[in-house]
Design brief:
This is Vacuolar protein sorting-associated protein 54 N-terminal domain-containing protein. The protein is mainly α. The chain contains six helices and no strands.
């Protein structure tokens, strides 16, 4: 073993560069290959063996020194790797929890949206049912008007006609209701002629109750002076 660092450096520098080239280098085969010449001396072999031994000692010392020098840093890196691995595991657990919560939230959101959609549909159906019922009632108004006129209940007919006209304004976007409104206007305009006919009939057969209805109808039409 060289006594000084300088001597050790000189021994290291004498190492054949071939040892540093190949990763799977076979040192024994290489050294034996050098002895395949026709002549070789035992003294020369001994010197070569001694040189290789010194080189091995120098290399071993350098490797030991490097391991000792870097062992603390290596241990620290291993510790940091363990910390990173632990944190990565916690992160994976956190992400899994977030994904599970997100999946649950999405499911609850879909359920809530489905409930809202169904409730909205029910409200729309109730509104549609109510609208259809009112349209049906308005449509049947014409038949009821004819009955009231035939019965001589002109005040009732006038009141029904006015109320139906006012109610029909809400549904004027429907063509059938626009037609109904036009018919109601014509009926109301012709109402006076029906009342006049009824009054003329009272001159033949007088009936106080029928006369009361005729008079009330004239009042409603503002035809009484």
């Amino acid at each position: 073993m060289p006594a000084t660092e300088q001597a050790a450096a000189e021994v290291f520098d004498e190492i054949d560069f071939t040892y540093f080239i190949e990763g799977n280098f076979d040192a024994t085969a290489y050294e034996l290959q050098k002895m395949l010449g026709d002549e070789f001396e035992l003294d020369e072999i001994e010197r070569e063996r001694f040189k290789l031994k010194r080189q091995l000692q120098v290399v071993s010392k350098k490797v030991t020194a490097l391991i000792t020098k870097n062992s603390a840093a290596f241990a620290k890196q291993v510790q940091q790797y363990a910390i990173v691995q632990e944190e990565a595991g916690k992160m994976v657990e956190l992400i899994s929890g977030i994904r599970e919560g997100l999946s649950k939230s999405q499911s609850e959101c879909r359920t809530a949206l489905s409930i809202v959609a169904n409730d909205r549909k029910r409200k729309m159906l109730r509104q549609l049912k109510s609208t259809l019922f009112k349209l049906k009632t308005l449509y049947e108004t014409e038949f009821r008007l004819k009955e009231l006129i035939q019965e001589g209940d002109f005040p009732g007919a006038i009141q029904l006609c006015v109320e139906a006209k006012n109610a029909a304004r809400v549904y004027e976007n429907y063509s059938c209701i626009r037609d109904l409104t036009a018919n109601l206007c014509r009926t109301l305009e012709s109402m006076e002629s029906h009342i006049d006919d009824a009054l003329a009939g009272l001159t033949v057969v007088f009936d106080i109750n029928r006369y009361s209805l005729v008079y009330s109808a004239y009042l409603m039409l503002d035809k009484v002076e």
